[in-house]
Structures are given as structure tokens and as C-alpha cells.
Amino acid sequence: MTPEDNQKIIEETNEIINNDSTYPFISYLSDLLAKSKPSDEAVKKLHDCIDKVAAALGQDSTDVFRALLAKLIEQPEEQQTFERLLETAEKFAAKYE
Hints:
Elements: H1 3-18, H2 23-36, H3 40-57, H4 61-73, H5 82-94
């Protein structure tokens, strides 16, 4: 990773953190991760699914991720798990294979 790549990641992260519309999603995600404790492999799989859907739709991966979280939030609380989030992402990604 080049210093430029690293700087770009830092800038994008700061933009997300400072974006008020993103904060509720970050807070919700933090709680979800603490509750579900997914494996690194599961997190990577979710990331890959989000990237696949974003590329197919020509959308930003952050927007796809927000949409998936919004869909999860609509579910009853006991179904709001990382596993459910991953299942939903896998279903959407399968549509674009």
C-alpha cells in the first residue's frame, strides 16, 4: 500500500465519521458487531458481497451497506444479527452472479 493509498483511506474514513447521516449506521453497526462477534472470514465475505452488488449497480459500496443495514433494522430485534445481515447481502449478491 502506497502512502497515497493510506492517505485516501484516512480521508474517506474521516469523511464517513464526520457525515452526520452516517453516524446512526456506525453506532448501530458497532452494537451489532459487539452482539454478534462475527469471524474475520464472515466480515470479509460481507465486504465482498457488498462490493459485488455495488459494482453491478454502479453504486457506492457505502450506500449499498447503508441499504442493507436499513433492511436489517426493519426486522424484529431478535433477528437483527450479523448472520442475518450476511444472509441478506449474499442473496443480493447472488442476483448479480
